[in-house]
Each structure stands twice: as C-alpha cells, then as structure tokens.
Amino acid sequence: MNGRIADPGHHPAGGKTSDTPPELADQTGLRRLDAGHLLGGGRECIIVHGGAEYRLRITSNGKLILTK
Predict the structure, then answer these.
(1) Is the pTM of this model over 0.85?
(2) Which of helix, strand or coil describes residue 64?
(3) Using CA atoms, how far apart are residues 54 and 66, in angstroms rounded to an integer?
(4) Rounded Cα–Cα distance for residues 57 and 53 (Å)
(5) What are phi and psi for residue 61, nearest 5 degrees?
(6) Could you report the per-residue pLDDT of 18-29, keeping only the tens digit for each?
(7) What CATH number does the domain located at 35-67 have?
C-alpha cells in the first residue's frame, strides 16, 4: 500500500472500513472526518494540498501528526 487514499470510506480490500459515513456535519456545519477513514486502517497517509504532499500519521502514543 502506498498510503494514498482514493476513497476515504472504501477499504482497499474491497469492503467498507465501517458502517459510519466518512463525513458527518457537526453543529457548526463543518465536515467531520474520522481519522480511521482517512488512514484506511493504516497508520499513515499522504494528503495533497496545493500541489504539495503532507504526511498524516499516528504516533506510537496515539497522537496525530501532520508533516510536510
């Protein structure tokens, strides 16, 4: 797996990662994404923004870190 997610709600093996929709609006109307959907069950993924690649990963302490 190269860490890239084409469809955050779709597991690479063909099944859904969970029955919960990947996007839920909270009271502010902002999109709410589950980290598990972004990471596709792995510990890191690449997010592309403005042509630059950023790495989102879960640390050994269970925290999220986003690096360029």
Answers:
(1) no
(2) strand
(3) 7
(4) 13
(5) -95, 5
(6) 555 556 666 778
(7) 2.10.70.10
- Token pair for 18: 């969970």
Q: Which residue has the tokens 């980290």?
A: 35
Task: Centre a 10 Å sphere on the Cβ of residue 49 and count the other Cβ atoms it contains.
Answer: 8
Tell me how long the chain is.
68
Exposure string for 24-33, b = 16+ CB within 10 A, e = fewer: eeeeeeeeee
Q: Where are the domains of the chain?
A: 35-67
Contacts of 4 (CB under 8 A, 6+ apart): 45, 46
For residue 56, the tally of other CB atoms under 10 A from its CB is 18
